[in-house]
Recover the amino acids of this structure.
């Protein structure tokens, strides 16, 4: 469901700076946000440490103090977030800088909020209205495109108690500033670029299918799809190309702008759940499930599929709406075939016994209220069986 009051249909406050080789400018940009920063990065996502050094040096030149917090090894849990928030409070930090990927960004969003509120991480998901104070200003520097999560007001965290991934959304989670330097992702392999691009594509489609989407959100998401379709294959052939990486990074930002106002959807819910129960990461899960989710929604969202088909440069002239909608799914599958991306959960050693658990967890996410039609839990499981 939308984070914003229902009478507002477009609102996007973050400042964005996107430029190749701009890490050294970080301090000059952040000084307008805060003067004493916690630079938080999860160890497993500390890609390109040379760029991290450049960012830290730049921050030190322009603000009073910078402290690197890297005590979290991998996916953060509630206790680790509470410890990081306590550290932010006792260090008198007035802003949080995130450097990393999916989990680092989720962690920083949570820490920025916990540092200014009298609550523990688990209470974000248990006690409604516990968050009463605005968070510490948040600056995000992604090490790779993160499906729009780098600019959107959502987070998901592993629950210490049941080990399930919980979801939280709040308007205050919008970052103050996002600095995107495609050069940071120069170390990504062709395989990593392929799965990242497909995951952005999946997120964009998810956003368009939301019943809360509108002309403004669709324009951003469709442009993201167009950028991915034109650049993902060349980017995998030339992993060092900054031009193609810039386009993929832009597509991620455009998707985030769209999903921040529209909503996430079924593919994201299934993917979050799958990462919790299997060894899939969020990028792999989003990619595998996209064609199957699209096939399920084809008849209920045919008009939107026509727009997606056009963004994929499919010829939809002189055919029916349903035929044109089918072209959208076919266009997605063409990209998969060219990139040799698996389209079955079983190809990633996911077990059939895991599917009911994935369906159960996915059905708990609040943003499924955005789906174009009601989706009973048994139908969610049917989609997973089809994807197996």
């Amino acid at each position: 469901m939308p984070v914003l009051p229902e009478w507002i249909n477009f609102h996007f406050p973050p400042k964005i700076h996107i430029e190749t080789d701009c890490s050294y400018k970080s301090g000059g940009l952040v000084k307008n946000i805060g003067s004493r920063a916690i630079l938080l990065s999860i160890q497993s996502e500390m890609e390109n440490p040379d760029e991290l050094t450049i960012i830290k040096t730049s921050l030190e030149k322009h603000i009073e103090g910078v402290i690197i917090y890297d005590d979290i090894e991998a996916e953060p849990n509630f206790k680790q977030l509470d410890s990081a928030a306590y550290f932010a409070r006792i260090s008198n930090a007035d802003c949080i800088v995130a450097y990393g990927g999916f989990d680092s960004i989720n962690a920083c969003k949570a820490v920025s909020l916990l540092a200014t509120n009298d609550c523990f991480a688990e209470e974000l998901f248990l006690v409604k209205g516990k968050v009463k104070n605005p968070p510490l200003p948040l600056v995000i520097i992604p090490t790779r495109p993160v499906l729009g999560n780098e600019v959107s007001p959502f987070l998901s965290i592993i629950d210490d108690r049941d080990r399930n991934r919980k979801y939280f959304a709040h308007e205050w989670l919008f970052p103050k500033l996002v600095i995107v330097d495609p050069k940071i992702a120069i170390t990504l392999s062709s395989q990593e670029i392929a799965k990242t691009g497909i995951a952005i594509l999946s997120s964009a489609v998810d956003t368009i299918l939301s019943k809360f989407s509108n002309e403004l959100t669709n324009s951003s998401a469709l442009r993201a799809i167009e950028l991915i379709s034109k650049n993902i294959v060349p980017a995998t052939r030339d992993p060092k190309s900054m031009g193609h990486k810039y386009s993929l990074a832009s597509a991620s930002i455009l998707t985030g702008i769209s999903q921040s106002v529209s909503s996430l959807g079924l593919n994201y819910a299934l993917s979050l759940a799958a990462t919790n129960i299997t060894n899939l990461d969020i990028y792999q899960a989003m990619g595998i499930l996209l064609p199957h989710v699209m096939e399920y929604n084809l008849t209920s969202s045919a008009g939107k599929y026509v727009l997606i088909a056009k963004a994929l440069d499919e010829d939809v002239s002189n055919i029916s709406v349903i035929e044109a909608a089918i072209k959208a799914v076919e266009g997605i599958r063409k990209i998969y075939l060219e990139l040799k991306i698996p389209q079955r959960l079983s190809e990633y050693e996911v077990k059939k016994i895991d599917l009911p658990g994935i369906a159960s967890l996915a059905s708990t996410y609040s943003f499924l209220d955005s789906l174009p039609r009601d989706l009973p839990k048994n139908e969610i499981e049917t989609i997973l069986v089809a994807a197996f």
